[in-house]
Each structure stands twice: as C-alpha cells, then as structure tokens.
Give the backbone structure.
Amino acid sequence: MEKFPEFVLNHPYLFSLFFVILTLLIWNIFGDMVGGAKILTSSQVTHLINREGAEIVDIRSPREFENGHIVNAKNISREQLPGEIKKLRKNNKKGIIFCCENGNISVKEAQKLIKQGEEMIFCLKGGIASWQHSSLPLTKKN
C-alpha cells in the first residue's frame, strides 16, 4: 500500500483511466436509484405487463410510433404527458412504463412526473432499441 502514491505519480494516465472506469461502473450499478424512476429490462417489462397489468406509454413521435411499437402501447407526446397521465391514473392504479427510442428521454420525463408526486412510474431500459435487440415483437397497428 505504501507504493500506491508512487504508482499514481508515475502513471497518471492509467490511474485516471482506472478512476473513470470505476466511476462509470458505480453509476451503471446505482444510477437508476438516484433519479427515482425504476429502470426495467425488457423481461421485467413483459412481466409487469403480463402479470400486473401495467400500461406502456410510448413518448416517441407519431411517425416513429407508426413504424413499430410495443403491443397495446399508447402514443403520448411529451407536451401532453402531464394531463394524459391523470387520465391513465383514473383507469389504472397499476404501473405505467415509459419508453422512447433509446431510453434517455423517457427517464427524464419519468423523473419529472415523480417529482410532481406520481408513483409506480417505470422506464424501459434502452428503449425500443433494447426491446428489438431482445427479439421481442413490435406491432404497426394501433
């Protein structure tokens, strides 16, 4: 352990690289806990839909939605989201799963709603891209 400072001084590039990789690893493991929105894998999403009746809200553009979406998903724009969530909550007290193209936008929108007091909000990790990568079906009919 006494040679650690010497190593850091002699190899600043390697130590910096180690620090960045360690930080990214920690963020990957614990990052979804920070924002409040639970991020789910494709298999967890299918479980939530099939066993607990969760609803899918696709926040992509209507054109992207028409090109392929998860079965029974509702296409709601980001601007309409706060009002539409209230309508969904009247009919369904269960979870609402947000998805977008790659998962980044849906997490931000979910975090906004959670800050406003919404509960049971989830996000599809990796968005529709990860859904397709998992060989899960998309439909073009609404």
